[in-house]
C-alpha cells in the first residue's frame, strides 16, 4: 500500500480540501444552492410570459423540460459556471451562420445580455436560453425554419418530425450537444456544396458586392464600348473571368471576356451567345444580397426534405429542368427535362416507381381534353384522327368507341364533355415510348416525348405538369444495368410496339423538388428564374424570422448570377 506523507505540503493541501468539501457546513451550502437554483428556475418559468425576450422562447416546452429534470440547470456546474457542454453549445450557436442559419434566432445575442445583480438568476436565465436555443436549432436543422405548407402551396412532400426533447436528453446525458446537432444537419452533397457557396457570397457581400451595369444597347463580342471594363470587373467578382494578364485594349470585348460571359449565361440558364442583352444584363445586375437570399431559400428546401433520401433515387430538379439518377450521393446520370408551365405547374412531391410502362397508351386528362383538344378538334375535324386519338363514351358500365365524324363538337364544352380520349401507342404518342409508373394523387409522371426538339430550349416549361425526360431509355437501362438478361427483355418488349408493364428489379424513390439555386460539380453555382414565383414569399418569411436584418432586397425584382468553380 502506498504511504501518504501528511507532512508533504501538497498531500496536506489535498486533505484539507477534501475535509472542507465533506464538512457538514459545505454540504448544507450545496443543498441550499441547489434549492435556490430550483426556486429561481420555477420563478422565472412562472413569470416567463412577462419577459420581453426576442425571439420568444417556447416557455411551455421549457416548463416541461425542466420539470422532467427536477428544476436543475442543464448547462452549468453545481458551482454556477457554464460547464464544458454548455460552453460548446454556446459557441456552436454563435457559429451557426456556417450552416446557413441566423445566430440571433437561437439567443446568441441574448445569453449573458440580461444581466442581474443576482448570480443565480443570471445562471438560470442563461441556462433557459441555451436550452431553448438547442431545441429550436434542432428543429430548424432537421425540419427547416418554416412550415413549407405556409409559404409554398406547391410543396407536397410530407414533413419528417423530430423529437426535440428526446434529442435534448441525448445531448445532456452524453455531454455532447454539438454532436447531436451536427447529426441533424443534412449531409447530402448538394446541400453541403450550397452551404460553401453561401459562405463565398457572404464574403463577396462583406467586400461590397458588385456594381450594376448601366442601360446600353446590345453589346456583342468584338465591339468596343465603355461598358466593357465594368463587365470585366463584374465577372471577376464571381469568378467567371480569370485573366492571366491585363487585356491589350480595355474597351474591346475580346474572346476571353466572351468565354466568361458565356459561362455566366450557362450558369443562369440563358442562351449562350455572348451577347449582353436585356436578360443577361438583368441577371448581372441582381445584387449579391438577393443571391444570398436565393441560396438561403434553397437551403431551406433541402431541410424540408427527408434526412435520408436513400442509397439510390431519382431527383427531378423542377426549376432547373433536370432529372438526375443519384447513387450513394453521386450523380450517375443527368438528363434535361421539360416541366409544367406556370398555369399547369409541376408540384414538389415524392413517389415510388415500381414499373415502367413500355409503349404506353395515353388517357388524356380531362383538363387537357376540354381546354386543348376540344378547341383543336373544333378548328380541324381531322385533328383527333391524325393524332391517333380514340373517342369513347360511357354506356352503362363500359366505355364504347365513337366515330368523331358523327359528333357535333360545337355542342360540347368543359361542363358537359362526356368523352374519354385515349391515344394509342406509337411514335406520335404524347408519352413517347416509356412512362414511369409512379402512383401519386397528382397524375404526374416521368415519361418520354416525341417532341424532342424542345429540349434544346434554355427555358423548358412546356408541359401540362408531367415531366418529359430527354434520353429516358438511358435512364431506364441504368435502372436495369445489374441484370443483363432483364435489359435484353426490356429491349425486346420496347421494340414490339405493344403496350406492357415492365417491373423494375428494385423500386426507386423519385423526388420532384423546386430548386432555383444549386451547385453543379462541373460548372459551379447555378441560378434559375423563379418561374413559379415561389422564392419571393419564402425569402420574405425567412427574413421576417430575423427582424434585425435588412429586408429591403427581399422586395426587389427577382430576375435571374454565379460563382464559378
Write up what this structure looks like.
The protein has 565 residues and is α+β, with helices and mostly antiparallel strands. Among the domains are: 34-184; 194-291 and 526-555, Muramoyl-pentapeptide Carboxypeptidase, domain 1; 363-424, no CATH class. Helix content is 39%, strand content 14%. The protein has helices at residues 9-21, 24-46, 59-68, 84-94, 119-143, 148-151, 164-174, 177-184, 189-206, 227-237, 255-267, 278-284, 288-304, 366-379, 383-386, 472-479, 484-495, 535-545; strands at 312-317, 322-327, 330-338, 349-358, 362-363, 389-395, 398-402, 419-423, 434-437, 446-447, 467-469, 500-513, 517-520, 524-527. The strands form 3 sheets. Strands 9-4-12-1-2-3-11-10 form an 8-stranded mixed sheet. Strands 5-8-6-7 form a 4-stranded antiparallel sheet. A two-stranded antiparallel ribbon has the order 13-14. α5 (119-143) packs parallel to α8 (177-184) and α9 runs antiparallel to α13 (288-304). The protein is globular and about 100 Å long. The relative contact order is 0.11. Residues 6-22 and 549-565 have low confidence and may be disordered.
Amino acid at each position: 500500500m502506498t504511504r501518504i506523507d501528511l507532512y508533504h505540503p501538497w498531500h496536506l493541501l489535498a486533505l484539507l480540501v477534501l475535509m472542507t468539501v465533506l464538512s457538514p457546513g459545505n454540504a448544507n451550502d450545496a443543498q441550499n444552492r441547489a434549492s435556490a437554483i430550483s426556486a429561481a428556475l420555477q420563478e422565472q418559468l412562472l413569470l416567463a410570459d412577462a419577459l420581453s425576450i426576442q425571439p420568444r422562447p417556447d416557455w411551455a416546452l421549457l416548463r416541461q423540460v425542466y420539470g422532467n429534470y427536477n428544476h436543475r440547470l442543464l448547462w452549468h456546474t453545481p458551482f454556477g459556471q457554464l460547464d464544458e457542454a454548455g460552453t460548446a453549445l454556446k459557441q456552436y450557436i454563435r457559429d451557426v451562420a456556417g450552416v446557413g442559419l441566423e445566430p440571433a434566432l437561437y439567443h446568441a445575442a441574448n445569453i449573458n445580455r440580461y444581466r442581474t445583480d443576482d448570480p443565480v438568476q443570471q445562471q438560470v436565465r442563461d441556462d433557459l436560453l441555451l436550452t431553448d436555443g438547442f431545441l429550436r436549432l434542432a428543429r430548424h436543422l432537421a425540419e427547416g425554419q418554416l412550415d413549407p405548407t405556409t409559404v409554398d402551396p406547391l410543396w407536397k412532400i410530407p414533413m419528417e418530425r423530430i423529437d426535440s426533447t428526446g434529442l435534448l436528453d441525448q445531448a445532456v446525458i452524453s455531454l455532447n450537444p454539438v454532436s447531436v446537432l451536427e447529426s441533424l444537419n443534412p449531409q447530402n452533397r448538394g446541400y453541403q456544396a450550397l452551404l460553401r457557396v453561401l459562405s463565398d457570397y457572404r464574403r463577396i457581400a462583406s467586400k461590397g458586392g458588385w456594381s450594376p451595369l448601366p442601360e446600353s444597347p446590345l453589346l456583342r463580342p468584338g465591339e468596343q464600348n465603355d461598358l466593357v471594363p465594368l463587365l470585366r470587373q463584374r465577372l471577376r467578382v464571381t469568378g467567371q473571368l480569370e485573366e492571366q494578364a491585363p487585356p491589350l485594349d480595355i474597351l474591346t470585348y475580346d474572346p476571353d471576356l466572351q468565354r466568361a460571359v458565356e459561362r455566366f449565361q450557362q450558369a443562369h440558364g440563358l442562351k449562350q451567345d455572348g451577347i449582353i442583352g436585356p436578360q443577361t444584363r438583368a441577371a448581372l445586375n441582381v445584387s449579391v444580397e438577393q443571391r444570398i437570399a436565393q441560396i438561403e431559400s434553397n437551403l431551406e428546401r433541402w431541410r424540408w426534405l427527408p434526412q435520408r433520401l436513400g442509397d439510390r433515387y431519382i431527383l427531378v430538379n423542377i426549376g432547373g429542368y433536370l432529372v438526375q439518377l443519384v447513387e450513394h450521393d453521386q450523380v450517375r446520370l443527368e438528363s434535361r427535362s421539360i416541366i409544367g408551365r406556370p398555369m399547369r405547374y409541376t408540384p414538389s412531391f415524392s413517389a415510388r416507381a415500381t414499373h415502367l410502362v413500355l409503349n404506353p397508351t395515353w388517357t388524356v386528362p380531362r383538363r387537357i381534353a376540354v381546354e386543348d383538344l376540344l378547341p383543336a378538334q373544333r378548328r380541324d375535324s381531322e385533328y383527333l384522327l391524325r393524332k391517333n386519338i380514340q373517342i369513347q363514351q360511357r354506356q352503362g358500365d363500359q366505355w364504347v368507341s365513337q366515330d368523331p365524324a358523327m359528333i357535333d363538337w360545337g355542342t360540347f364544352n368543359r361542363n358537359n364533355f362526356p368523352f374519354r380520349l385515349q391515344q394509342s401507342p406509337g411514335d406520335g404518342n404524347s408519352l413517347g415510348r416509356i412512362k414511369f409508373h409512379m402512383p401519386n394523387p397528382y397524375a404526374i409522371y416521368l415519361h418520354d416525348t416525341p417532341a424532342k426538339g424542345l429540349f434544346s430550349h434554355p427555358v423548358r416549361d412546356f408541359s401540362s405538369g408531367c415531366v418529359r425526360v430527354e434520353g429516358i431509355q438511358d435512364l431506364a437501362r441504368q435502372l436495369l444495368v445489374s441484370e443483363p438478361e432483364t435489359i435484353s427483355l426490356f429491349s425486346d418488349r420496347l421494340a414490339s410496339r405493344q403496350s406492357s408493364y415492365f417491373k423494375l428489379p428494385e423500386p426507386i424513390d423519385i423526388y420532384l423538388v423546386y430548386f432555383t439555386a444549386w451547385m453543379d460539380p462541373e460548372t459551379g453555382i447555378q441560378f434559375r428564374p423563379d418561374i413559379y414565383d415561389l422564392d419571393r414569399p419564402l425569402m420574405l418569411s425567412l427574413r421576417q424570422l430575423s427582424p434585425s436584418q435588412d429586408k429591403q432586397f427581399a422586395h426587389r425584382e427577382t430576375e435571374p448570377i454565379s460563382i464559378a468553380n
